[in-house]
Design goal:
mainly alpha, Flavocytochrome C3, Chain A, domain 1, Methane Monooxygenase Hydroxylase, Chain G, domain 1, 3 domains, 8 helices, 43% helix, 6% strand
Length: 287
């Protein structure tokens, strides 16, 4: 089975009548929400995840073949061509789909000019927390983020004073050596991706989050030793940053004793009576 990068096609196709089905052709979304295939993305992702795990499936399918071929090709020309390039004719075939993390909620807090509280650091789009999305990322608001905040950020940057007198010391590599096992970085990177998806993915539990935090702490120690003893590379720096971001995500998830939007915990399946943001400040986090 070829993997398909569906960009935003799943939501788009569902809006035009496409059905999520099991390999047998049976629909299943009506079991999870009265809106069926038109349910919000968090509910759809949880439903797909549950069906795949319960039945041992590698994917479910999105089927719009009940619509006319002419309608599909005119309404979804890019999706039609993209899938056809990968051997799937969506006028006849079902599209294999799995949940994917192509969006986030939260991020770095900014003001209306996209400035963070770190001098001369700006954040725009999915990396930022602007308050536009709440607990479930809204596709329409992404356009607002792109157009409005990019414009205000650009204006602020043009008027900002980026001059500074900081003198950085010369980088000293006299006490480090070339890494002879670059595979350690690749292996750690893959391990991080795997357990973050399995333990901190669509459905979370306290036990899974604790396991993830334990693994993150171990890997950070290993990467820290690697960082001290070998010449740095862009992959090593990015891995170190990914571990730090992963820890922040897990700590935020542990802090939230409820289920809301994209954060679903089996230990706390209902939303709290009062909605509030989970905010981590520098004094709350020790590197």
């Amino acid at each position: 089975m070829k993997k398909i990068d569906l960009f935003l096609s799943l939501k788009t196709l569902r809006g035009e009548g496409a059905k999520l089905v099991l390999p047998s052709g049976e629909t299943f979304m009506e079991k999870y929400d009265d809106r069926g295939d038109l349910a919000p993305r968090d509910i759809v992702a949880q439903a797909i995840d549950y069906e795949m795990k319960q039945k041992g499936l590698v994917c479910v399918y999105l089927d719009i073949s009940h619509k006319s071929a002419d309608f599909i090709q005119k309404r979804f020309p890019m999706i039609f061509e993209r899938c056809l390039d990968r051997g799937i004719d969506i006028t006849k075939d079902r599209i294999p789909v799995v949940p994917a993390a192509h969006y986030t909620c939260g991020g770095l807090m900014t003001d209306r000019a996209s400035k963070t509280n770190v001098n001369q650091l700006y954040a725009i789009g999915e990396v930022s927390f602007t308050g536009l999305h709440g607990a479930n990322r809204l596709a329409s608001n992404s356009l607002l983020e792109c157009l409005v905040f990019s414009s205000t950020a650009a204006s602020s940057i043009l008027n900002d004073d980026f001059t500074h007198n900081h003198q950085l010391p010369k980088w000293d590599e006299s006490r480090v050596t070339d890494a002879d096992e670059e595979v350690l970085i690749t292996h750690t990177w893959n391990e991080l991706r795997r357990f973050m998806w399995n333990y901190v993915g669509i459905v979370r539990t306290n036990k899974r989050l604790s396991r993830a935090l334990h693994r993150i702490n171990m890997l950070r120690d290993e990467v820290g030793e690697f960082y001290k003893n070998f010449k740095i590379s862009s992959n090593l720096i990015e891995l170190r940053n990914l571990l730090q971001v992963a820890e922040l995500i897990v700590l935020s998830s542990i802090e939230r004793k409820e289920s809301r939007g994209l954060h679903f915990s089996k230990d706390f399946p209902k939303p709290a009576k009062i909605a509030k943001n989970t905010i981590l400040k520098p004094q709350d986090y020790k590197d």
